[in-house]
């Protein structure tokens, strides 16, 4: 695996993680290199590590499993009860030195305590937070939040937790109650180092950085509001001199699909469909990394869904989020023009993994259990805001529709 060199602040955090057994939460605004550090850590650590995330898409992006799949946790509220754990799960969790959790801001307080309980129980070290496993978390609470439950489950959380955020889990405060004396969880909370990455690698305009930071923290001044309002509620400029149409970021899938269909239908020529090849249990449709049926025409505006990996050691021809235009379609390749240069794009393979522990060799392995093969492209006159997370665009139109999410 080819990883990007770390900056000085990323190196400092990496050395803290690798040189200790302490739990670490790595946060930072968009573009500060959290994903780069995560990939470097997983590739270079000498520890036995498993990577997980709260959703299938997030797990796929980091080459791991979902939290519930890895730890065999029940779906829904995880109350204070003994967990049912197969022997294979106990052996797997017992072999871990480090557990990496990506997009941890989507992990609820009770799920975090469920992770703690599963590790203590599987490893037979019930008095130690996380059963002695080092937990390293990546995420930004300003970007994504856990989805709160409803009804009785919501009332349970209100009665037992200060909030539904992961940092209010009992494991950090040492307040986790036992289950009628069945489980002795100890009284001391887990130590947690919080490290914020501050160097932004996506934006180079200092004024724009300051504006984004003010919006992030709710400290927008009247002058800043004037700048923002000056860019809102206006008709986007038409492309000139062969420019690509500005991508629209919308809140709903139906709005995105309608925009993309309208532009695709307006192109002259016959639409061609590339059908994905799926081997193994890759999950449901919403977990797929690309369209199962990708419809393209010559002239279609597309977005790359993966970084270029063809030229090892060479500058990438495109990155995840690059916008281009289809200029030719053959059976096994799609030619895409990016900034005036044309590139032949071949189907990419996404792999879904599952961790396993092999008692005979005492090795923890990450095994491929499913594959999804498709061109790493998506129609990109419009894309949902959710799917655009982590991507960089030179310019964009923000369509909030009739309303948008808020925290």
TrEMBL record:
Keywords attached to this entry: ATP-binding, Helicase, Hydrolase, Nucleotide-binding
Occurrences of domain DNA helicase Pif1-like DEAD-box helicase (ranges): 6-154
Origin: domain of life: Bacteria
A GO term for molecular function: DNA helicase activity
CDD domains, per the entry: SF1_C_RecD
GO BP terms in the entry: DNA repair; telomere maintenance
Name this protein carries in UniProt: Helicase
